[in-house]
Amino acid sequence: xxxxxxxxxxxxxxxxxxxxxxxxxxxxxxxxxxxxxxxxxxxxxxxxxxxxxxxxxxxxxxxxxxxxxxxxxxxxxxxxxxxxxxxxxxxxxxxxxxxxxxxxxxxxxxxxxxxxxxxxxxxxxxxxxxxxxxxxxxxxxxxxxxxxxxxxxxxxxxxxxxxxxxxxxxxxxxxxxxxxxxxxxxxxxxxxxxxxxxxxxxxxxxxxxxxxxxxxxxxxxxxxxxxxxxxxxxxxxxxxxxxxxxxxxxxxxxxxxxxxxxxxxxxxxxxxxxxxxxxxxxxxxxxxxxxxxxxxxxxxxxxxxxxxxxxxxxxxxxxxxxxxxxxxxxxxxxxxxxxxxxxxxxxxxxxxxxxxxxxxxxxxxxxxxxxxxxxxxxxxxxxxxxxxxxxxxxxxxxx
Length: 399
Prior knowledge:
By secondary structure, this protein is α/β, with parallel strands linked by helices. It folds into two domains: 2-20 and 273-398, no CATH class; 34-252, Spore Coat Polysaccharide Biosynthesis Protein SpsA, Chain A (Alpha-Beta Complex). 50% of the residues lie in helices and 18% in strands. The chain is built from 13 helices and eleven strands. It has helices at 2-28, 54-62, 84-93, 110-120, 141-146, 172-188, 205-210, 213-217, 223-234, 254-271, 273-303, 306-328, 346-369; strands spanning 40-45, 70-76, 97-101, 127-131, 154-165, 200-204, 237-250, 371-372, 375-380, 383-388, 394-398. The strands form two sheets. A seven-stranded mixed β-sheet has the order 3-2-1-4-6-5-7. It starts with a helix and ends with a strand. The model has no long low-confidence stretch (mean pLDDT 91).
């Protein structure tokens, strides 16, 4: 029992400390003055039209309050993609919008291939800004992403997202998705980690050129983790822009939420193996502690063992407090907030916390099952990738 207690105490304390630092970062993040000195090419990879509010998302990306030179590349893999009619409509409606038909990728993720083809279509720019088609940006998002580049040491800026459930009705998948995205946001905000998110990521074109990142992205499974890895390799600075936490409307099943989480874990499995092992070292013992806590409590009641009752109650309280801190850490940007949006109810969130942690352990263990002979199998937007688990290079693609 004591082993389970100390395991839960360690994991909960770690969550407390990391979350508190995150909250401090959100409160005291550095602010940069607006600038129009940089030309910006916004690259938006699009696939299918299943993202909630897809057209409004794209309009929000295009109609930005930035007075500097801008161009928008909306990139689809083929003419048959369901997004293309809308993308052509936007191209005809807005002078600064261009459609890019990328073609099918053979050596990297299709999303990354779309981005690279969009970049190749840009004749001249200072900054590449990559944006997912499911984000809901506020009107000053672009200028806030660009502003930190007035510091010549900054190579990359990034924002993140918060999941907004489409309905107030309880759906386990939405709560799991909200928990996981918030937890990743907590780690992403720490400067030393140099974390980046490809859904809102800006990078100097000069950095792309100098470090040959085009060539690297053209053979690897993911754009943002590859760039993050390069930041660490070359000791480059990145800026987390707290005001660029964008809402992303969420309507996800449990299986979709777990598939998303497992893909994030798999990226760490490839690019940050020490972190991946650390996930195991913390999550698996914590999960075991959570699973045995009810048994310890029942044992204590049956034997009138107050020590067992106290230990199980303390473990349960620590898990609940951890969930409460994560809930408080949902990074809500007032500029990107609507009172009409559905919210995650605290009580349900707390009840889901131990379930989310157990599912995390399941996802971690599943990532081990998808590696055979040094190749990691990944599924992403209906495409299966075979990836070298040591290098992140895509070996085979099945559609």
